Amino acid sequence: MIVFPNAKINIGLNVVELRSDGYHNLETVFYPIKIHDALEVVLSDELRFTSSGNFLPGNAADNLCLKAYHLIKKEHDLPPVNIHLHKNIPIGAGLGGGSADAGFFIKLLNEVCEIGLSTETMQNYARQLGADCAFFIGNKPVFAFEKGDRFEEIQLDLAAYYLVLVMPPIHVSTAEAYGGVKPVRSESDLRSALKLPVEEWKALVENNFERSVFEHHPQIKAVKEALYQQGAIYAAMSGSGASVFGIFNKKPDLQKFEQANQVFYDV
Ligand SMILES: C[C@@](CO)(OP(=O)(O)O)[C@H](O)COP(=O)(O)OP(=O)(O)OC[C@H]1O[C@@H](n2ccc(N)nc2=O)[C@H](O)[C@@H]1O
Ligand SMILES: Nc1ncnc2c1ncn2[C@@H]1O[C@H](COP(=O)(O)OP(=O)(O)O)[C@@H](O)[C@H]1O
């Protein structure tokens, strides 16, 4: 069986406080977008993981799909499976690609192996693999809080707009991004701000990571500014970067970006 794990963007992101476990409490909105990997799981005589597409850094054994398999196997009698991942979502981009694979893998394994896990149980497994993995179990727009792994569903539909994602050739590590941010309690409520017309978001909806990440990587800031110059109604870095999304009324002409960056249209 094959599924197509999709990426997410963060619309607004406030790092609220440092927690006693070293993580941070945050407030953000996760919004699913149309950039996909392909993930196949079939019953087999031995456990095997293969991949194709974009280069996956690190050991195959550290892939979140295999980690999810071993996590669930601790509590359930799982048969061996063949896993194939075709990687298309840019890696380390703030798009949650690895987390998407983990969340979709858990759902897929649940079906292929007929484990019978509830949505809540799948979310609990996902949470143990990474802070934003659990989002991909429900995969609907949510206001996320605490470690980014507790959710409240929100009504947010950007289907009437044209979304573009630009990925500059820069890697920002998530841990590095958290290290550079000064936590502050937000004065305004992100949920209320996102109920206003998109035209008003520019003045109200911020990603706290941008300040320090832009200082270290002015090229990412330049991409955001260029998207506004091309007519974006709203543009921001997603998560800990380096990808930047733009919300437009119609398809923009971004041909000149395509040499230096990866550009995804109509996401
Ligand atoms: C920043 C965000 C925003 O949505 O997304 P990305 O930009 O990575 O996609 C997430 O918080 C990333 O979540 P995720 O990528 O699952 O993080 P994890 O693997 O659990 O943690 C990586 C590292 O980030 C830091 N971390 C992560 C989440 C959190 N709430 N507080 C933290 O301080 C910790 O230093 C941790 O060791
Ligand atoms: N299935 C996977 N896809 C991508 N990265 C993965 C995967 N499994 C583990 N990783 C590791 O997670 C790291 C960051 O993952 P990714 O989700 O792409 O970034 P981000 O958290 O910025 O959205 C990568 O450096 C990679 O080593």
From TrEMBL:
Q: Which Gene3D superfamilies match?
A: 3.30.230.10, GHMP kinase, C-terminal domain
Q: Looking at the keywords, is Chaperone present?
A: no
Kindly state which keywords UniProt assigns to this record, in alphabetical order.
ATP-binding, Isoprene biosynthesis, Kinase, Nucleotide-binding, Transferase
According to its UniProt record, what is one Pfam family this protein matches? GHMP_kinases_C
The superkingdom of the source organism is: Bacteria
GHMP kinase N-terminal domain segment(s): 63-137
List, from the UniProt record, the residues annotated as the active site of this protein.
8, 132
PANTHER family xrefs: 4-DIPHOSPHOCYTIDYL-2-C-METHYL-D-ERYTHRITOL KINASE, CHLOROPLASTIC
The job of this chain, per UniProt, is described as: Catalyzes the phosphorylation of the position 2 hydroxy group of 4-diphosphocytidyl-2C-methyl-D-erythritol.
UniProt lists the family membership as follows: Belongs to the GHMP kinase family. IspE subfamily.
Protein's UniProt name? 4-diphosphocytidyl-2-C-methyl-D-erythritol kinase
| Gene giving rise to this polypeptide | ispE
